[in-house]
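User: Structure please.
Assistant: Input sequence and predicted structure:
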Amino acid sequence: MSLPTKHLFGLSDIKLIDKQKINPYAEEAQTIAKGLCKKAGIHLSNFDGYNSMSAFLYPDASLDRLVGLIVIMNFLYYVDEVYERHERQGSTDKSEDIYLREVFDNCVEIIISGKKINATHELYDASYMIHETVVPLTNLDWMRRFITVTLQHLKSTTYNLEDIIEGNEDPIEAYVGLRELDCGMRPTMHMIEFANDFYLPEHVRNHPYIRSVEEPTANVAGLMNDIISYEKEVIEFDSRFNLVALLEDYRNLQFDQAVHEAVVIVNENTDNFIKRETEVPDFGDDETNNLVARYVQGLRDQINATWQWQMSTDRYRSPNSPYPELRI
């Protein structure tokens, strides 16, 4: 990529895809979900700063499904907040990472089966709560598929930056590949079906077209978050697990140049999605084609939510933000 000579892109140059959409049950669902999360022991003081996102991601979900979605998202955010990768970065002791992977395996078993296990961990009660809240509203085929991608996400958070980029000719490309797993967008995208109470047939779910629209959606979400969360992740936590930071480190760019390149990457992925959403193949019958159209609209809602929610929450705002748009 070549940097323009007249203008470096900043936060406000991120390409938008739609107007703000918020679920009408947002406030009510938030209150119910907060009570459930408190009871399960996974309520953090900044709950309201991040769990409002589900109402942006799933603007058409019913009340009970939105509650289930918030509960799941809170579980994933709780793991992200409490088991931060930056606290383990650079460590040669992998025992905690190995232990966490075992814990995540147990969480998956509890969520699917609802059976208590002969072990103790703070996430196990929360996993049982997810089972009770979500499983009655869906089918086990979807649940098993959803759990598979969720486990991939949870385990990806246990790998350090050094594990990812070591031996790779292009550390940026390697990082972007793992970020798709790490950012949680695979389970987030799968929850579109649960949110709207429809389920893609297996042959559709495995079709290359679905992957072709999911990949840019996940990249927009994860990499845009890297840009917006730079102060929180890089400045406050001194983490280099961030696209802007890696562009500084491995492309030898100044901060404003690295932000420009990151915005270019995000916008290219948005353009890719916009192109692909108009190229839906014919799946052979109107019912299946309608399901695919609903799923692609759900992905569009999530790209839209990525910007709209992050600019509405106080999670990334501060007096010293490197971005004028986020200063308070």
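The domain at 11-326 is CATH 1.10.600.10 (Farnesyl Diphosphate Synthase).
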